[in-house]
Amino acid sequence: MREDEKVEKIKEGAVKEGIAYLVFGVLTTVIDYVISNALFYAGHMASVPSQTIGWVAAVLFAFVTNKWWVFRSHTLVPAEVWREFVSFVLCRVVTFLFNLAAIFVMVDLMKLEFFICKLLISVVVVILNYVFSKILIFAHKKEK
Q1: Which residue range(s) make up the domain with 41?
Q2: Does residue 68 belong to any structural domain of this protein?
Q3: Predicted TM-score of the model (pTM)
């Protein structure tokens, strides 16, 4: 394979990965938003617990979709799957703590609108999650 063909294949793979991340990221965000907003508004639950429950559901969905379809890690070796899962959850905990702190400050202390705050914070969280997944979690050689 010529060098320019290799470069083109890498670019094509990056575009497919980006599109998959965007699609599953939107679905993950929808899961988080629907659950956390339903609990906050309809269930009259406090902001932090509602956010926590929505986050747990979204992280489980995101791990499966990121592993299989975004970063194409198809290993089923238990030790490797466990390493990916633990790394994924730990990185998501970091962005979750950022999310919780920001929600607490913006909604509970500053009395800003929950939905709008969550939307703004989500932009930063999505970027951080992609970087962590790409560099730390699924950076190893992918199985085809």
Answers
A1: 3-137
A2: yes
A3: 0.74
Report, in this order, helix, strand and coil percent for the chain, each rounded to 5. 85, 0, 15
Each residue of 48-74: pLDDT tens digit? 899 889 989 999 999 999 999 999 999
Residue 143 lies in a domain: no
pLDDT, tens only, 8-24: 877 888 889 889 999 99
Nearest to 74 by CA among 12, 138, 27, 130: 138
Task: Dig out the tokens for 89 from the structure.
Answer: 């959850």
The Cα 141–Cα 48 span in angstroms is 37
Q: Which residues of 107-129 are buried (b: 16+ CB within 10 A; e: fewer)?
A: beeeeeebeebbeebbeebbebb
How many folded domains does the chain comprise? 1
Question: Quick one: tokens of 13?
Answer: 């793979």
The answer as to whether 144 is a domain residue is: no
The token duo for 60 is: 């489980």
E-assigned strands of the chain? none
